Amino acid sequence: MASHRSRTPQSIDAQPAALDRRTLLLSAGAAVLLAACGGNDAASTPTTAASAAGGTASAADETGARAGAGSTTTAPAGTGLTAADFDGLGTCRLLPEKTAGPFPLEEQLVRRDVTEGAAGRPMRLGLRVLDADCAPVPGAAVEIWHCDATGDYSAFRDNGGGKDEGPGTTFLRGTQIADAAGIVEFASIVPGWYPGRAVHVHLRVHVDDEIVRTSQLFFDPDHLAAVYAAEPYAEFGMPDTSNAADSIAGDPAAEGTLLHITDVTAATGPATLALANLGITV
């Protein structure tokens, strides 16, 4: 196993925040919709996840594409996600509060494609924000961040050795604004892992410039076993901490934070499709 796995997760992961004491109301069948990544050389016109998916790229999408310095992730041709894609994900439940650590940023990078050329299995993440009546929350801002295939977060140095990119980097971070159906989409990669934590994606939901929910989403171990058998994950092996052994994860299946995942085949090869309902109170 690579030496940079020696980083101590307890030093970068805070203890879980107390769970919300309000009655759980909302649905959170957690899942990430994953899709293909396509690279563009620096001389080509950037292709955004929105335009590749058959939608119209916004100014924010174009900004995200430029941030990738000519190497961007694109979703395969098709239509955007709709409420029908999320309706079967689970019962109505409030998304549990989880620690924001490690490494959230105050800066909001409004973009759909967060990869910036990061190597890994393409992941298209689709999230739907719902309120206490299970109605969509249009205009909610959903912020995500996660580590790369080597277990490294952008923007901070954690002194773990090996790949440890620090201030000035922004890979695998982004924010999107929910549409009329409460849906946001991101083009990313399946995260890697670091010692002491199960594989996860961090998120915060902002409404009217206020953070109303901070949580994490988790992965099915069988899916990770298949993904991690291939490069760039294979050299690091399987995670040393399961969902059940992670002190922050709790019970992802019961809490609605377990990602509902489907394998897909894209033009660039294997990819992952998954979705999550994010229940909040506003």
Q: Let me know the number of strands.
A: 8
Rg estimate, integer Å = 17 Å
Name the structural class: mainly beta
The first-level CATH class is given as: Mainly Beta
* Spatial strand arrangement across the major sheet: 4-1-8-7
Mean pLDDT, as a whole number? 75
| Total of DSSP H or I helical runs spanning 4+ residues | 4
- End-to-end separation in angstroms reads 45 Å
Number of domains: 1
The percent range for strand residues is 15-25%
Per-chain topology:
Layout: H1 49-52, H2 59-67, E1 122-130, E2 141-145, E3 173-177, E4 183-189, E5 200-207, E6 210-218, H3 221-227, H4 252-255, E7 260-266, E8 269-279
Question: Care to describe what's here?
Answer:
The longest helix has 9 residues, at 59-67. The strands form two sheets. The protein has a four-stranded mixed β-sheet, with no helix packed on it. The radius of gyration is 17 Å and the shape is globular. The chain contains four helices and eight strands. The chain is mostly beta strands. It has a single domain (3-10, 26-36, 88-279), classed as Sandwich (Protocatechuate 3,4-Dioxygenase, subunit A).
